[in-house]
UniProtKB/TrEMBL annotation:
Keyword set includes Hydrolase: yes
Lineage: Eukaryota, Viridiplantae, Streptophyta, Embryophyta, Tracheophyta
Molecular function via GO: glucan endo-1,3-beta-D-glucosidase activity
Family assignment from sequence similarity: Belongs to the glycosyl hydrolase 17 family.
An example Gene Ontology biological process: carbohydrate metabolic process
Signal peptide from the UniProt entry: 1-23
Organism encoding this protein: Zingiber officinale
Keywords (A to Z) from UniProt: Glycosidase, Hydrolase, Signal
UniProt xrefs under Pfam families: Glyco_hydro_17
Keyword hit for Hydrolase: yes
PANTHER family the UniProt entry points to: GLUCAN ENDO-1,3-BETA-GLUCOSIDASE BG1-RELATED-RELATED
Record protein name field: Glucan endo-1,3-beta-D-glucosidase
Coiled coil segments of this chain: none
Length: 333
């Protein structure tokens, strides 16, 4: 009996580790005036066995609520801090001390130095690499370099070419030096992947089945690689781009992906549930270019956020309503 208990505990441990490495996290935006308290939000993550979270600025209340939870965290450096951190190593030191070191009970995993700034914000792009370097220096000084990796999050717009996937290439020369930084520090590239927006922008050429993981056969043939879903094609285009600038060993973490449940084109509860449930089931498989290498992915977002700017769909990406009731049934295992 004791031996069976030992093996059962070992199996649970291994499954937990695998889920954390190649599992699903949920992005926790806070752009709403009716959202649950940080402690209630963390409790909802735990009750649903959601192992990872991303937040977009160092909200002290959320960090306090996360302490001791063992939830793995991506923490963003907000764009308003970027220039000062890039120009002053002491500013990076203070940021890391105040937002990382001060919360020793939080399981920090990645620091995202900026979100979707290349090429969307060319005025800020020049500060990304020096800010990453200074944050890395502060992480090293704190002795946390083996625990926390420093990266930046980019969208599909960072690719100047993405079709076919093997032709994937970055649009900006600045990505080359960023990729070299990632490679030298064994850090991943954080990549926001939205088949929804690709489908919305080109529904004449992209089928809904291809976007929702429901195609019954390969849709795109690219040399030795066959693509049955758009998500894989988008991720592999980024892998091809990495390879072209010396980043063959740089891993991709999908730092955002999701589908809106209301508010616009192809936004429905059924489509959102289908996409997100299929994404959860798919990530362990890898992609045609990286078969068998599970993907760490973060769904956007935990809650519908009523104060988000943009089209109505932007306020309907949540898996839960602010009252903590699910928008649709979904399993995170």
């Amino acid at each position: 009996m004791a031996e069976l208990c030992f093996y059962a505990i070992t199996l649970i441990f291994l499954v937990t580790v695998l889920n954390r490495v190649h599992g699903i996290g949920i992005c926790h935006g806070r752009l709403g005036d009716n959202l649950p308290s940080p402690s209630d939000a963390v409790a909802l993550y735990l009750s649903n066995n959601i192992a990872s979270m991303r937040i977009y600025w160092p909200d002290q209340n959320i960090l306090q609520a996360l302490s001791g939870s063992n939830i793995q965290l991506i923490l963003d450096v907000p764009r308003e801090n970027l220039q000062s951190i890039a120009s002053d190593p002491s500013a990076a030191h203070d940021w890391v001390q105040n937002n990382i070191v001060a919360f020793s009970g939080v399981s920090f995993r990645y620091i995202a130095v900026g979100n979707e700034l290349i090429p969307e914000h060319p005025d800020l792009a020049q500060f990304i690499l020096p800010a990453m370097q200074n944050i890395q220096g502060a992480i090293n000084a704190a002795g946390l370099q083996s625990q926390i990796k420093v990266s930046t999050a980019v969208s599909g717009n960072a690719l100047g070419q993405s079709y076919p996937p093997s032709a994937g290439a970055f649009a900006s020369d600045s990505m080359g030096s960023i990729v070299q930084f990632l490679a030298s520090n064994e850090a991943p590239l954080l990549f926001n992947v939205y088949p929804y927006f690709a489908y919305k922008g080109n529904s004449a050429q992209i089928s809904l089945d291809y976007a929702l993981f429901t195609s019954n056969s390969p849709v795109v043939h690219d040399g030795p690689f066959d693509y049955q879903n758009l998500f894989d094609a988008m991720v592999d285009a980024a892998y091809a781009a990495l390879e072209k600038v010396g980043g063959s060993n740089v891993r991709i973490v999908v730092s955002e992906s999701g589908w809106p449940s209301a508010g616009g084109f192809a936004a429905s509860v059924d489509n959102a549930r289908t996409y997100n449930q299929n994404l959860i089931g798919h990530v362990s498989q890898g992609t045609p270019r990286r078969p068998g290498s599970g993907i760490e992915a973060y769904i956007f977002a935990m809650f519908n956020e009523d104060q988000k700017n943009g089209e109505e769909t932007e306020r309907n990406f949540g898996l839960f309503y602010p009252n903590k009731q699910p928008v649709y049934p979904i399993s995170f295992t």
